[in-house]
Specification:
This protein is of the alpha+beta class. Helix content is 16%, strand content 41%. Strands 1-4-3-2 form a four-stranded antiparallel β-sheet, with no helix packed on it. A hairpin with an 8-residue loop joins strand 3 and strand 4 (63-69).
């Protein structure tokens, strides 16, 4: 129970930075996977946890990834 409360406090009380990425489909990605993002143009660097993915049904579409920054625990 203590571990679950600690997990919920970590999720909801920290300032979570969210990003949205549009890219060519990467079919092996799943929610709750950690990805590393480095974009010099928008100054986004670091590790992010995937929250949701939307895949296109067409062969030439792009996928959308919603992710939040993976914070290091102390």
């Amino acid at each position: 129970c203590y571990d679950r409360v600690r997990e919920l406090l970590y999720e909801h009380l920290t300032l979570n930075e969210s990003i949205s990425i549009s890219t060519l489909p990467i079919y092996w990605l799943e929610p709750n996977c950690k990805i590393e993002v480095e974009d010099t143009k928008s100054r986004i660097y670091g590790e992010y946890m995937i929250k949701s993915i939307s895949l296109p049904l067409m062969h030439n579409g792009t996928m959308s990834i919603q992710a939040t920054r993976a914070l290091k625990r102390i």
